[in-house]
Design a protein that fits this description.
The protein is an all-alpha fold and about 180 residues long. It has a single domain, classed as DsbB-like (Bromodomain-like, Up-down Bundle). It contains 7 helices and no strands. The longest helix is centred in the middle third of the chain and has 35 residues. The termini are close together. The C terminus is likely disordered.
């Protein structure tokens, strides 16, 4: 007897990926998150972004770029959009964890606290900081926004949740492109 390895969920997910609206929504969500972070945290709350916040914003734009690129021609370009968006998700998650470490140090171990820096360390990031300083110039100290809360989570914890969900969604979508083959028992 051969096991049934047909997964209707993965079949539907694979079919959605060949359509433009899913990729367009993901790309626009990435761009929206970057603009929202500037308008809400910087303009409305008056918080200044630290270096890790800037890296997270750039990674979020990378996620959006992958989605928008794949939206141009989803049947083919999704295989380019996935690596771009996955890279952005991993980078954003990495720096969200680093930001959480800085936040915890600032709150509970002030003697162990040290700032993450104020100079973007790579060439394209420095270019963005020069051309668009309102969005990409690190002006603040890491972990200083620890008094901001949403549902009892601080900013770094919310970012960890968001990028973990994005990573899980991207990995599920990518895995649906590779249908498992039935093996005889």
């Amino acid at each position: 007897m051969t096991p049934d390895l047909s997964y209707p969920y993965f079949d539907r997910l694979a079919a959605w990926q060949r359509q433009r609206p899913l990729w367009l929504a993901g790309g626009l969500l990435g761009v929206f998150m970057e603009v929202f972070s500037v308008l809400y945290f910087q303009v409305h709350l008056g918080l200044r972004p630290c270096l890790y916040c800037i890296y997270i914003r750039e990674a979020t734009l990378l996620i959006g770029l992958g989605g928008l690129l794949a939206a141009l021609w989803p049947r083919v370009l999704r295989f380019i959009g996935y690596p771009i968006s996955l890279t952005g998700s991993f980078i954003a998650l990495f720096f969200a964890f680093k930001l959480e470490t800085q936040t915890v140090n600032a709150l509970y171990w002030p003697e162990a606290y040290s700032s993450c820096g104020i100079r973007v360390g790579y060439k394209f990031g420095r270019y963005l900081a020069q051309k668009w300083p309102t969005h990409f110039s690190p002006l603040g100290q890491c972990g200083i926004d620890s008094n901001w809360r949403f549902l009892s989570f601080n900013q770094a914890e919310i970012l960890i949740i968001i990028y973990l969900l994005a990573l899980i969604g991207l990995l599920l979508g990518l895995s649906s492109n590779f249908k498992p083959r039935a093996r005889g028992l």
